[in-house]
Amino acid sequence: MSRLTIADVERIAALAHLELTGEEKQLFTGQLADILTYAEQLQQIDTTGVPATAHVHPDLRAERPDEPAPSLAPEDALANAPDADAEAGLFKVPRVIG
Amino acid sequence: MSAPAESVRAIRDDVATGRRSAVDVCTAALARIDAANPRLNAFNTVAAEGALSAAAAVDRHRAAGEPPGPLAGVPIAIKDNLCVRGMRTTASSKILDAFVPPYDATVVRHLERAGAVILGKTNCDEFAMGSSNENSAYGPVRNPWAPDRTPGGSSGGSAAAVAARLVPCALGSDTGGSIRQPAAFCGIVGVKPTYGRVSRYGLLAFASSLDQIGPMTRNVADAALVLSVIAGQDVADATSAPEPVPDFSEGLDLGVRGLRIGVPRAFIGSGVDDQVLGAFEAAVDRFREAGATIVDVALPNAAAAIPAYYLVCTAEASSNLARYDGVRYGHRPVLAPDDTLQTLYDRTRDEGFGPEVKRRIMLGTYVLSAGYYDAYYLKAQQVRTLLKREYEQAFERADVIAMPTSPTPPFRLGEKAADPLQMYLTDVFTVSANLAGLPAVSVPCGFTADTLPIGLQLTGRHFDEATLLRAAAAYEAATDWATRAPPLG
To answer: Fewer beta carbons below 10 Å: N end or C end of chain A?
Structure first.
């Protein structure tokens, strides 16, 4: 049995940058515990000496010449920003330094 | 073998020879969408103006004597997690409600160069996370065969649009079955190519080691044609493979005589709906009658694919979705003057993401966090290696492996929505192809007594879509399931 607590959920939410409501915290604590308990069946499988698969085609050759190519124009990059200064070419966020 | 009416090939041939104009084809498709979409909710965005001007360009090029492309004038719908330049792309998430991509996905570029006409963006589970399309911020899609049922997910809008004859082809994406399961639930063909076969550039990333883009059509030959157009290595996707892309339309009529079809009996044994099992066994008989050899194959750890999959995909999702922070694109909450950047991040994501996306980000963050990484994430990636090896061994005995696509027919909307784990278990037959990177296809293989579609899944060797599609085409030719149309068109 996974023993996930509300405190665990709050810790994970902070890591994941999610501001959860009290109701969400309650709901997720139960649901995530169920899922983790279910996933514990993997512990029954002997994986001694078995490498992890990070990529299904480990021999894939992905090199290419390192040549400059056109990239996104600043006005296109800024076009979807919720807040930006188009003239300065900058995204805007709340004050970071006091 | 002549192409069925309103298939990709029939439309292309009509437009290429001037029997019909691309504009007429496009206008008719837009009218069908207008009529059916209020009931189906298959489209998030319909781009009528852009589609008509693209169709007019196809007609102009033909009039100027230019050779028509392999998809000249073919109307195609694009899952709403694929970027189309200038066309609203939401991933069915509130967080991207107003996002307009500044670039095209590579697959979209390939389609347009081949003469296809992009009609709009199809509804899906938010960020492709779901098996029922109920996780969309824009409401669920309805199954054209039964409006109270799910069309499957996550590419539910693409599947419903093709099944209801709104378009002859749609693109979907498949991370754990998101092309194949909705194809099965809507009675159409859906192909998940080999990992690396199709460029993922411009696909809003969910789980990068599992995601693949593929075609959804009403017959195998159409899927083969579209796959030939969208496949190939791309400098913009380092995981796309250099393997040469054959013309997948070639050799589809070679039949299955001499082919070995593997059936993992022990794995299919339990938990499968009786009618699904009946249709599956009948399909295996059809292969035998058509001259294939049926062999038993073992996939001892196949049942572990679901837990392994949900640990790997959520881990990758938690990382991939970190980019949605309310700064460069997407939703931003109303902030008070003294709110911090931290509040901006946290509130953006709480307001913008739906419950399933939050759940997966949370799970993924947990399994990657200090103290849990080895027990969950690393273990899952090791089990993934075992699964991949088991498939390699199975493919020494068989050329293609057959399974049901889904353990049940399409279930009712709302039936599993409150229990995420029950929803995850519906992916039991599809996730292992993604974990092992193998190509797989779902083809219609019958109906329940209530006329709900049932799908047959075939899995092939890495980069051997040719054999896979050949087997699927042989099965399709021996049956008439693909010719049936749903009532809700």
So the answer is: C
**B208 is annotated as an active-site residue:** no
From chain B residues 405-444, the ones with a CB under 8 A of any chain A CB are 420-421, 424, 435-437
Our count of domains for chain B comes to 1
- Asked whether the beta carbons of B128 and B96 are under 8 A apart, the reply is no
Mean pLDDT value across residues B330-346: 92
B304 touches chain A (CB under 8 A): yes
Confidence at residue B1, expressed as pLDDT on a 0 to 100 scale: 54
Provide the chain B residues 50-109 that lie in CB contact (below 8 A) with chain A. 98-100, 102-103
The whole domain housing B210 covers 8-255+475-483
CA distance B416 to B410: 11
Report the CATH fold assignment for A6-44.
Histone, subunit A (1.10.20)
Q: Which residues contact B210 (CB under 8 A, 6 or more apart)?
A: B175, B176, B195, B309, B312, B313, B316, B434, B435
Active site residue B178: yes
**Spans of all domains in chain A:** 6-44
pLDDT score recorded for residue B489: 60
The answer to whether residue A61 scores a pLDDT higher than 80 is no
Domain with residue B62: its CATH number is 3.90.1300.10
Under 8 Å CB-to-CB from B19, ≥6 apart: which residues?
A: B13
d(C-alpha B424, C-alpha B359), whole Å: 12
CA-CA distance, B228 to B248, in Å (whole number)? 6
